[in-house]
Every structure is written in C-alpha cells, then in structure tokens.
Amino acid sequence: MKKIFIARHASTRSALRGQEDIDRELTRKGETEAGWLGHHLQAHNDLPALILTSTANRAKETAILAREALMPELPIQTDAQLYLAPAAKIFKILHSLPEDINSVLLVGHNPGLSDFLIKATDQSGLNTETRNRLYRGLSPATLARLTSTAREWKDVLKDNTRLDQLSYPGE
User: Fold this and answer.
1) Which value, in Å, is the radius of gyration of the alpha carbons in the chain?
2) pLDDT (tens digit per residue) in 64-93
3) What pairing do the DSSP bridges indicate for beta strands 103-108 and 76-78?
4) Model-level pTM?
5) How many CB atoms lie within 10 A of CB 43?
6) Reading across the β-sheet that carries 161-167, which strands appear in turn?
7) Burial grade of 103 (CB within 10 A; 0-12, 13-18, 19 or more)
8) Per-domain boundaries in the chain
9) 148 phi, psi to nearest 5 deg
10) What are residue 6's phi and psi, to 5 degrees?
11) Cα separation of 135 and 39, whole Å?
12) Cα separation, 52 vs 48, whole angstroms
C-alpha cells in the first residue's frame, strides 16, 4: 500500500516588478499555513517518508516549514519537474519513486495538483461539499490524503487510489 499526501504551496506574495514567478515567497499567513501542514500531519500520525517539492521558492518554503513542524530530520528533495506540473507529469514523478519509500508528501502548484486529484483518485467516499471544493481547485496549503492499494509506485492508478480527505488550514 502507498500513502500519498498532496499539498498546494501556502499563501504567497504577488510577484514584484521584474520578479520571476518561481522566485515568489510566502507571506506571513503562508508561513503559518505551512506550519499547520506539518502539525496536521503529525496530529493524524501521517508521517511521510519523503517530502518532494517543486523548485519554486514558495513550494520549498512550504516544505521546509511543514517539515520543521512535523519531523525536522525528514528528507526533502526538490524536483524541477513539479514546478507547475500537469497531472500527467505528477503521475510520472510518482511512478518513478523508489520502492523503499511507501509514503510521500508532494508540495506543488495548481492547477496541476487539483487536476491530478480529479484524474488520479476515486472520490466516491467524499461528501458533496468536499467534492465541490476539489473541483473548484485547491486553495493555498490544502492537504489531500490519498491511499493506493498498489504495491509498487508504477502501479498507482485511479482504479486503486482513493482520495480519503481534503484538509484546509483553519478548519
């Protein structure tokens, strides 16, 4: 069984004049949200073996602050392919994870993360409100908890992956 946690980066500043999108940073609110991600995972005894994050500053900051609240020694890896990745790329990234890892926290961006959750999971157990929120797109620092019955990452598919829960900061 594989556990997948998907987190959209926390709230960010608007790009400054001449600033590249990839260089945007978290706001103070975003820093609090990122810490919430780690505390929330810890409170639910959800400990990923690895944090995999986009190379965007806002995603890396989210990953680092979540890790500090969760477990400071947890490894973080950056993957440039996660920056603004569409659903198909996220599947490829998951399918290439080492088999000795059974759980991962992916920190990335919309609209790719929302699209991935819609395309990659069975949402039949979700209530109407949660399903509607999913289809509107993940807000900053939203955390999705997925369970796949696949034994190997390459076998993670919609048929064997369930969206268990969406969690939001402040709720």
Assistant:
1) 15
2) 999 999 999 999 999 999 999 999 999 999
3) unpaired
4) 0.95
5) 9
6) 76-78, 50-53, 103-108, 2-8, 143-148, 161-167
7) middle
8) 2-12+22-167
9) -120, 135
10) -115, 125
11) 26
12) 10
